[in-house]
Amino acid sequence: MKLTDISNDINDWFSGSGPLADIVVSSRIRLARNLAGHKFLASCSVEEKADILTKLKTVLMSLDLGDEVFYVSVDEESPLNRNFLVERHLISRHLAMAKGPRGAVVARRESFTAMINEEDHLRMQVLRAGCQLSDCAKQIDRLDDMVEQQVEYAFSPRFGYLTACPTNLGTGIRVSVMLHLPALKMMGQIEKFLNAAKDMNLAVRGLFGEGSEAASDLYQISNQVTLGVSEKGIVDEFEKAIIPEIVEYEKIARLQLLSKQVDALDDKISRAMALLQNARLISSQEALFLLSHLRLGLNMHEHMGAETPAIKRLCGLRAKTDAQADRGLSIRTINRLFMLTLPAHLQLNYGKSLDATHRDALRARIIREALTQ
Q1: How far apart are CA 280 and CA 300, in angstroms?
Q2: Contact (CB, 8 A) for 105 and 69
Q3: What is the Cα–Cα distance from 31 to 231, expressed in whole angstroms?
Q4: What is the DSSP letter of 188?
Q5: Which of 67, 98, 269, 329 fits as disulfide partner to 107, beta carbons 3.0 to 4.6 Å?
Q6: Within 13 Å, how many C-alpha atoms sit on residue 95's CB side?
Q7: Domains of the chain
Q8: Which pLDDT value is given to residue 260?
Q9: What's the sign of the alpha-carbon dihedral 8, 11, 12, 15?
């Protein structure tokens, strides 16, 4: 299977569907595991890394995921392909930039990825659209049990699963939710939210996880404590308390925009439409922020019944895409443009590497063609 087989469209978990999908873009649960009898990767020789890779690849490729799986030899891929996998959220930037034998096993519909020889020997993740952490937990528990039937994990009765980084010690679980929070930012409340999240021992990262900044008002919220708490306890707290509270804050901010700053809201949406429909050069960062304003307008119309002048014009746009020819503009279309106009996606689908100016021109053309009157 080639990466170009999946690069022309978005995956299910980024489709804009699922519970609370107007604000919760996606849910992800990741487990960190290491094999007993092997050193942590920082101390491994190339030969030992290759041995770990062979063992885990064999096990993972034999799992019954209910979906076709394929293997990517990350160390043999080009820089462009590795960047594509990062943009696609199939591997971490750490795995893309690491050295030595390493790879990833990916489900065809991209709901599951296992990274081998990242920071730990094995990092498995399950993704779903919207707020579906319980479903993520059920699947990854099942897969974790299936792997553990064939290999022995490094485990301590006192400390739980042993991991390369102490912050993952214990359960080894990382619960992460991607949120779209443009109204909090427009109302000047985002810093208050970020500070509150830190006080709750939550990590707040950008679109591409650790080390990335927030783009298009998308934030990834995840737990930082894994020791001394159960996996179920972490998932339940996120799904029943933390995420609903953040969602409520964003909803209140959206209502405040409609009642107190409707002209500012309309200005943001109108400017975004004008630029995206007419620009000849547009950077990735600018495109993400402008598309974020369109996503906000569409969601406010669908979930809050908002019908400001700019939102009415936005809803009157037609979407010209292979999947939605001549239909009204949708969240899926916006999410598709989010993903497919990222630098590596652009170049992989175009068929060759491009410099920044040519990428900006191609991105602008794709967006102009997708957003028509």
Answers
A1: 29
A2: yes
A3: 10
A4: T
A5: 67
A6: 34
A7: 3-253 (3.30.590.10), 262-372 (no CATH)
A8: 94
A9: negative
DSSP 116: E
CA–CA separation, 305 vs 317, rounded Å? Answer: 17
DSSP string spanning 12-67?
A: GGGSS-STTTTTEEEEEEEEEE-BTTS--GGG--HHHHHHHHHHHHHHHHT---SS
The angle subtended at Cα 36 by Cα 35 and Cα 39, nearest 5°, is 80
pLDDT in tens, 1-56: 789 899 999 999 999 999 999 999 999 999 999 999 999 999 999 999 999 999 99
Given this model, what pLDDT does residue 209 score?
52
Residue 210 CA: distances (Å) to CA of 64, 90, 102, 195, 312:
30, 14, 19, 17, 37
Given the structure tokens 């750490």, which residue do they identify? 94
Is a pLDDT exceeding 60 seen at residue 180?
yes
**Alpha-carbon gap, residue 199 to 52, rounded angstroms:** 38
Token output for 351: 């068929």
